[in-house]
Amino acid sequence: MIEERVIAAPRVVDRPPERMAVLETVGDLGARAVGALYGAIAQLGLRSGALRARWPNACSVPKDEWTARWALPVPDQTPELGSGIELETWYGRPVAEILHVGPFGAAMVETVKRLHRFVADSGYEIVSPAEEEYLTQPGEEPQRTVVRYEIHQAH
Known about the structure:
Order of helices and strands: EEHEEEEHEEE
Strand content: 35-45%
């Protein structure tokens, strides 16, 4: 069972550094990448938290050219996983986040716009690509996704 957190409104959270197993794809939605991540972690007998993805160019190129950085949290002492899977440290700075409930599409766009307004109105700037944390499994309804950006104080 994936841990659920209730995020009723946009909020700023200090996220401590977290070790992530990351696999990058371009031009697809990543079913193979996600399977490879879970498989590599399972081979080591590790447990992981919720799947995450960062979308560094989603606003600047057509969808079939999107880069996705699929990630799963892993323990700090995780050894190299191979197969193109990198170990990275994410966070260590404040993030702004909001919970989106429902399918991706127009409603998700409105949720993201709401988060952008909150960030600006709170005196921050976004300093990372969009990130999604998937709290529900594919096909499970309603879909629950945390949308997140790393931020810093605006100058």
